[in-house]
Design a protein that fits this description.
Blueprint (H helix, E strand, L loop, with lengths): L6 H18 L4 E3 H8 L4 H11 L8 H18 L7 H4 L2 E3 H18 L16 H14 L9 H15 L3 H36 L1
């Protein structure tokens, strides 16, 4: 790859290369744990980006929750400075390889376009010193994303995706924007939860 290639493009290409390696083995499905291993158990920032991208793909019931808890596990490992080890209940869940590979190839194309507007700036917000705050923030958002309210997780997930993208691309301004979207999404989710609780209490009071 030529010099001057944006960092984020190199990272997203790593996702494609990892999935192509799995696809070349002939396996039609892979577990979350094997997906983590293919990306590199120490590639915490890349893994968070990959998981937020996966969460944009429609999946079976409970898929979003598994993604959220996997993101939480990656963030915990990042804060602790440890390789990612998933609990068996999460790590053994399987994903189809073909759509993942096709989706990741499209992501690389889109990333190349977005990278024209995102560039390394305010690097102090994305450097090694930001790893622990970033990990803790990702933990909070990923736990919030486990709330089983339809469509409530979309905005926080987009925000975390923008944040992960920017952290990899060393774009401090993009990281701030991503964090702001996360906070906005968190506020919307809290409002929906309280709304659901109030609606439920109103229904109970009406019945009794």
């Amino acid at each position: 790859m030529k010099r001057g290639t944006p960092p984020i493009v190199r990272y997203t290409n790593r996702i494609v290369i990892g999935l192509r390696t799995v696809a070349a083995s002939g396996d039609e499905k892979l577990t979350f744990q094997r997906l983590i291993e293919a990306m590199g158990q120490g590639s915490h920032r890349l893994l968070i980006l990959m998981l937020t991208l996966l969460n944009m793909i429609p999946g079976p019931p409970g898929f979003g929750g598994v993604i959220a808890w996997t993101t939480f596990a990656v963030a915990v490992a990042m804060v602790l400075g440890k390789p990612v080890r998933l609990p068996r209940i999460i790590g053994e869940r399987k994903l189809p390889v073909a759509p993942l590979l096709k989706g990741s190839e499209q992501v690389v194309k889109v990333t190349g376009i977005i990278a024209r507007f995102s560039r390394p700036r305010m690097r102090w917000l994305t450097g090694a010193a930001a790893t622990i705050p970033y990990g803790i923030f990702a933990m909070v958002i990923s736990v919030a994303m486990t709330v089983p309210i339809p469509f409530s997780n979309a905005v926080p997930n987009v925000g975390l995706c923008v944040l992960a993208f920017s952290m990899l691309n060393r774009d401090g301004i993009g990281a701030v924007i991503g964090a702001a979207i996360c906070v906005l999404g968190l506020g919307v989710e809290i409002a929906l939860v309280f709304g659901a609780i109030n609606l439920g209490m109103h229904a109970v009071n009406t019945v009794f």
